[in-house]
Protein 1
Amino acid sequence: MKYKNLPEIKLKLEDIRASLLGEIKKIRNTSKDDEFSQLIPDTTDDASRSYSRQMLLNLGEQDREKLILVEEALYQIEHGGYGVCKLCEAFIPEARLTVVPFAQYCVSCLNEIEQDQKINRSSGADQLESF
Ligand SMILES: [Zn+2]
């Protein structure tokens, strides 16, 4: 399936990524790590996926999860597979992707997952897609 608003969705993902990385930058600016500036990716190619572990650790857990999902979505837009539900492999409706561009599951699978998590909830990151 081709998403009509894919360029828009991609921009949105890049926006989210930029603001998440901005958060890391803010945190890191308070320390004296000169290597950091070299780690900030400025492109959307594969190289940008190689964040250092330390950078990710500086983010809150929820932001970290989100950044990973955003990266994955951007990768899939470039390489294929974007918008496919990870559980049932149906295409996620564009309307949903416009709201949650890094969604990994279709709405019905997400509902099932959330049902499961009510029984076995571990962290706030589980609710990431449900805003
Ligand atoms: Zn599904």
Note: The pocket of zinc ion is lined by residues 85, 87-88, 90, 105-106, 108-109 (CB under 6 Å).
Protein 2
Amino acid sequence: MVTKRDYYEVLGVAWDASEQEVKRAYRRMAMKHHPDRNPDDATSEEKFKEAREAAEVLMDSHKRGAYDQFGHAGLEGQGFGGFGSIVKAFFGDIFSGGGGRGRSQVQRGSDLKYILDLDLEEAVRGTNPKIKTPTQVECHECRGSGAKKGTAPTVCVQCVGMGQVNARLGFFSIQQACPRCRGAGKMIAEPCRKCRGHGRVEQQKTLSVEVPPGVDTGDRIRFSGEGEAGANGGPAGDLYVQVNVRAHAIFTRKGKNLYCEVPVNLVDAVLGGEFQVPTLDGLINLKIPEEFRSGKLLRLRGKGVNVTQDRGGGIGDLYCRVVMEPPVKAGLVMSALAMTALVISALVITALIITGLVITVLSIIA
Ligand SMILES: [Zn+2]
Ligand SMILES: [Zn+2]
């Protein structure tokens, strides 16, 4: 079974590398291994191709997402994963960390990433969701050999099971994947019907994730050995569950502190009443501060997020920005009030004058 190197490893970039970082890493590799700069050097050419393929996937958010979740299997049918390209992709591997290992030897599976979307409340209090992740498991039908039930793979006659052959390139003798068995070291005359000779099948797996209280976007929980299955009995990769906290309608979180805005009615502010402040535990009533002004930041101690020691520990605070209702609207309300008051007082005065006149007239008559 031939497997590909991890794309992140190929380009030497981190899991969360930005598109810019991927582009930079690719440019660096391309400059170094470009066929024009290394004529007649098959190793460089293949390294160049390998880097180009990795960059093509990692710079395309759709393909990258599929790769992160499903590994190389996620890209099958997207122009990758053909055997020809796999063999070529491995051609250049002999100068890398692998140190010329036979391709038929054990290979660790790729690490996978799962994005876990959480509400702020869940992230703050901790949660225990069940997630479904696709995984490649050994095919039961052929027990991973890839050969039809009742048959067994035969040792490749060209490389006698080594998976690699020596090739001469000018002065150099380099090892390359065996063209006959494509680096597997064995040949399958009749492939297994269930796994079509891959030796592995895809399966859904349910995992229970223990999310501790206080996590934030970007936090990762590692599940050792829950990633892509290894090849030829190699160990599985790891699964990284990466937390993504959804935006909250009211609160913004910065570290262990929470921030929110509370609109306060101008009339309430003038009268010095109470107003309601939202917290993660529900609404609480607060007295409007004496020197009230719009934009004043109120601090509610201990109403933030309880974070773990590696984030500094302790409970954060909630900061509430009190915002007076927009002045234009308030102004309109005021002028309407003033107008009403004016009209009413005018009416009262008129009534008083008329009453006074009537009384005067009556007293004159009397
Ligand atoms: Zn099978
Ligand atoms: Zn062979």
Note: The domain at 252-325 is CATH 2.60.260.20 (HSP40/DNAj peptide-binding domain).
